[in-house]
């Protein structure tokens, strides 16, 4: 679960706060101290932590909280605001250049995820922006890098420019760009070489590539699991290349939060995308406010909707949207449909963790990931039509029969029904927070 440690700690801190009626200065100091410890433990840069806790305590001790009728809530709001600011504030979207070719240069240490991200990004932008992308393999040092990009290109059906047995990345970059001009590609993504550590020769080479191709974006790919040491790396890349933004990868792992929370404040550059898994669709545009919500355990319904929209078959999504809009109840048939589609999006628990108040313990109960899909399908297919459309009637006797019919245990049936209830709640939230307000499921 993303930033699990931080998430849990903030939820604890917040529930203590909510229990308290009035807050005094001492309470605020105490909570700020707890927040400070939580952030330090998550490997957030010390200076960042200091500034963050200073900001929240100053605002909280001011009139904003102490005189409020709901001091706990007010305090939480301040934490959320400040965290959003820390993560980059108002959303910084990518600058796509109208009428000019978009040329991205991906840089970063070896293993940060550049090659994978090059493929993910090309795929995403082809879909979202209708670009015709070209990937260029400029990493001539890591033996398998060129092949890796070629395989990605094949898998995604995206063209790759590469030269084997040529050790001149600047030349490859230039010729890649020429191919893009000739072939009318409007998005060029250059995958460059990384080392295990920053080294002068590599940096000089990257500067040369930059000068030769004049990229519209230089995106530093940073391994989100590395914590605050990534800040030093980012500083150095930024000093020499004046990067335009950061892509933070591997946010699906045991990321503690250090890199995400330290990087923008320290180098003054926005995180533009995040990588959230090994699949080629696991990339998201970065929204500071949504990420703050996720870190603080408040959920992120909007990202869920984006993800669902990216993955879902448009026809089915439309039907579901209609159904939700018209307040027709979400039943087990829809649930089964969803599960089949969601199989491609990652586990249900990874989606549910975007829901407000999700916590690891609760999610354990509703883990219907991967291997469980077949079993889930079998259980639902063992139900009668009436049971599927009115799950409320599934009593103990019926559960036993369904378990027997599907070759599963009653506990499995129970778990599925619980997962269904969670999903149903989630759908309701989507309806309330989005569809009804905006008329349709669309980005803000
Ligand atoms: P490069 O050396 O910077 O080009 O890094 P690669 O693209 O080869 O990635 C290194 C490893 O990280 C590969 O095994 C990728 O599958 C993995 N990886 C990249 N992005 C992500 C991500 O967002 N999540 C996870 N879990 N793995 C990732």
UniProtKB/TrEMBL annotation:
AAA+ ATPase domain boundaries: 100-408
UniProt cross-references to Pfam families, sorted A to Z: SRP54, SRP54_N, SRP_SPB
Keywords: Cytoplasm, GTP-binding, Hydrolase, Nucleotide-binding, Ribonucleoprotein, RNA-binding, Signal recognition particle
Domain SRP54-type proteins GTP-binding: 101-297
Domain (Signal recognition particle SRP54 helical bundle) ranges: 2-87
Residues bound to GTP: 108-115, 191-195, 249-252
Domain of life from the UniProt record: Bacteria
Annotated localization: Cytoplasm
SMART domains cross-referenced by the UniProt entry: AAA, SRP54, SRP54_N
Main location group: cytoplasm
This enzyme's EC code(s): 3.6.5.4
EC supergroup of this enzyme: hydrolase
Function: Involved in targeting and insertion of nascent membrane proteins into the cytoplasmic membrane. Binds to the hydrophobic signal sequence of the ribosome-nascent chain (RNC) as it emerges from the ribosomes. The SRP-RNC complex is then targeted to the cytoplasmic membrane where it interacts with the SRP receptor FtsY.
Family named by the database record: Belongs to the GTP-binding SRP family. SRP54 subfamily.
Family matches, as PANTHER family: SIGNAL RECOGNITION PARTICLE 54K PROTEIN SRP54 (PTHR11564), SIGNAL RECOGNITION PARTICLE SUBUNIT SRP54 (PTHR11564:SF5)
Free-text domain note: Composed of three domains: the N-terminal N domain, which is responsible for interactions with the ribosome, the central G domain, which binds GTP, and the C-terminal M domain, which binds the RNA and the signal sequence of the RNC.
Assembly mode: Part of the signal recognition particle protein translocation system, which is composed of SRP and FtsY.
Protein name, UniProt field: Signal recognition particle protein
Source lineage: Bacteria, Bacillati, Bacillota, Clostridia, Eubacteriales
């Amino acid at each position: 679960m993303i930033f699990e440690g931080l998430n849990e700690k903030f939820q604890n801190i917040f529930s203590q706060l909510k229990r308290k009626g009035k807050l005094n200065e001492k309470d605020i100091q105490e909570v700020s101290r707890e927040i400070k410890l939580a952030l330090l433990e998550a490997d957030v840069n010390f200076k960042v932590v200091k500034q963050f806790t200073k900001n929240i305590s100053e605002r909280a001790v001011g009139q904003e909280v102490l005189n409020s009728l709901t001091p706990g809530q007010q305090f939480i709001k301040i934490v959320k605001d400040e965290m959003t600011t820390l993560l980059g504030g108002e959303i910084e979207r990518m600058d796509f250049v109208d009428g000019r070719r978009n040329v991205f240069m991906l840089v970063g240490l070896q293993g940060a995820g550049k090659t994978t991200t090059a493929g993910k990004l090309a795929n995403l932008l082809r879909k979202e922006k209708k670009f015709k992308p070209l990937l260029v393999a400029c990493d001539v040092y890591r033996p398998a890098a060129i092949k890796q990009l070629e395989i990605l290109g094949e898998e995604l059906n995206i063209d790759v420019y590469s030269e084997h047995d040529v050790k001149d990345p600047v030349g490859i970059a230039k010729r890649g760009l020429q191919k893009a001009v000739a072939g009318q590609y409007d998005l060029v993504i250059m995958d460059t070489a990384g080392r295990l550590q920053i080294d002068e020769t590599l940096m000089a080479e990257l500067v040369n590539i930059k000068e030769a191709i004049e990229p519209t974006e230089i995106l530093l790919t940073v391994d989100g699991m590395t914590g605050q040491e990534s800040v030093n790396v980012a500083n150095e890349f930024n000093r020499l290349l004046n990067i335009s933004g950061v892509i933070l990868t591997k946010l699906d792992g045991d990321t503690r939060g250090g890199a995400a929370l330290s990087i923008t404040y320290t180098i003054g550059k926005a995180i533009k995308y995040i990588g959230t898994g090994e699949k080629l669709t696991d990339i998201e545009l970065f929204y500071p406010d949504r990420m703050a919500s996720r870190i603080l355990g408040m959920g992120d319904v909007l990202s869920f909707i984006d993800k669902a929209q990216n993955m879902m078959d448009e026809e089915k999504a439309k039907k579901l949207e209609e159904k939700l809009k018209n307040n027709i109840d979400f039943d087990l048939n829809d649930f089964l449909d969803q599960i089949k589609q969601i199989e491609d999006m990652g586990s249900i628990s990874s989606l549910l963790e975007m829901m407000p108040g999700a916590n690891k313990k609760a999610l354990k109960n509703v883990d219907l990931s991967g291997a469980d899909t077949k079993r889930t399908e079998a259980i639902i297919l063992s139900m009668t039509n009436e049971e599927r459309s009115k799950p409320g009637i599934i009593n103990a006797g019926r559960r036993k029969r369904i378990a027997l019919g599907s070759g599963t245990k009653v506990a499995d049936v129970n778990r599925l029904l619980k997962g269904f209830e969670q999903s149903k709640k989630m759908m309701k939230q989507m309806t309330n927070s989005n569809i009804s307000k905006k008329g349709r499921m669309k980005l803000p």
